[in-house]
Design a protein that fits this description.
It is a single chain. By secondary structure, the protein is mostly helical. The protein contains three helices and two strands; from the N terminus they run βααβα. α2 crosses α3.
Length: about 55
């Protein structure tokens, strides 16, 4: 079974930039404070957030 840790703990351990962690939380409604996820799930959301394209309105 995959180890579960809070999203904050994964972000700290993986040295995830604050802006990227904030973007990941913004696009993942289930990522409330203290949410526990596997490393693979954390990595998948961070990867998706890092690929977002920002365009002017």
């Amino acid at each position: 079974m995959d180890e579960l840790k809070s999203i904050e703990k994964w972000a700290e351990e993986k040295k995830t930039p604050a802006w990227l962690f904030a973007a990941a939380k913004a696009i993942t409604p289930t990522w409330g404070e203290g949410r526990e996820v596997s490393e693979a799930d954390f990595d998948a959301v961070i990867d998706r957030a890092g690929k977002l394209e920002m365009r002017p309105a």
